[in-house]
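Hey, I'm writing a tutorial for new members on how sequence and structure tokens pair up, and I'd like a real worked example in the thread rather than a made-up one. If someone can provide the structure for the chain below, I'll link this post from the tutorial.
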Amino acid sequence: MQVVVDADACPSIKEIVSLCYKYSIECHLFCDFNHKLDYEAAITHYVSQGFQSVDMALTNFLKENDILITQDYGLACIGLTLKAKVINPNGNIYTNKNIDSLLEQRYINNLNRRRKIKTKNISKRSKTINDLFLSNLEKVIISQKEHKSDL
């Protein structure tokens, strides 16, 4: 098991890396060359800039029982297909039960943007959201470690 992060637009990377270090889990950060990530306790994978290049590299790297952190519903769907645990930076855990409705909502939001229909405003990331994310990530890590020891 390892933690794999879609790091292009992920907040709280420092805290993610710290949690991985605390639990002795490898942390892999995927981003394009436009980002500069320098964390001693993480392995950073730089890929060329391009449409879906980070997602493709991450998909090829991801394995069953890994923990994927992403806010990309399409990538989350692929992660679930590969039997990874998937969580978004707001602390929501993606499952096979909720991914279809999330993909449908993304489709509707894209239609509304094209039609210039205003959707809800995105507010700044709060400490409460960040704490929820880190708490849920820690729960997923502990659960995966326990699952692994049961095998």
